[in-house]
Amino acid sequence: MGLWDSLMGRSKPAQANLDALFSLPSAAITLEAAAGIKPTGLGSVCYRQTEGAAFSTMQADVQQLLDSDGGPQVERSVDPYGFTWLVVRHDPEDVGGLVTDLHAVNSTLVDNGFGPQLLCSVVDFATADGRPLGLVYLYKRGTFYPFVPVAEPRRDNALELQVRGIVGEDLPVEKDLSRWLAIWGAPGLGGGTR
Length: 194
Description:
The protein is an alpha+beta fold. It has a single domain, classed as Alpha-Beta Plaits, CATH 3.30.70. The protein has helices at 3-7, 24-35, 53-67, 95-111, 157-167; strands at 38-47, 73-78, 84-89, 118-126, 132-138, 143-147, 149-151, 154-155. Strands 2-3-1-4-5-6 form a six-stranded antiparallel sheet. It has a two-stranded antiparallel ribbon with strand order 7-8. Helix 3 runs antiparallel to helix 4 (95-111).
């Protein structure tokens, strides 16, 4: 961005920081050891779909790449708010493989010029008593926050703060709590769907 853009109040959209995703496997081990919270093997990438052949082709290529060679099960869904979710299923014990696939989706979107459409990634967990919990990765911030839906519009803030304390050494946790947005309708977080 140049000086003129700065003076005129123009700014470039923030670029996604994808590297923080690779800290999730160690956080998963910490969550299980400290609180009995286990990965479910489900992860998803949320983005705002754009019109046009280039985006449709790229989206189909990503799905084909992940579906090839007996890889993970991949599906696409649209939530009630119009956001597209690309959902990847893995063995719950293979958090590293899940993160690698989510990173591949994100990188493909960014490499094809669609980085600004990325909203978040979510890796799903289940508490010891079976409640859904998602670790949400904010692209534009390169940070995580926990989301524990109860029933829209309620969420378990106490558990979210507890999880923040547990994974704070493993993950870059979002410090600004106002950015801990509810992601109602996210795949795999059944308590949060309508």
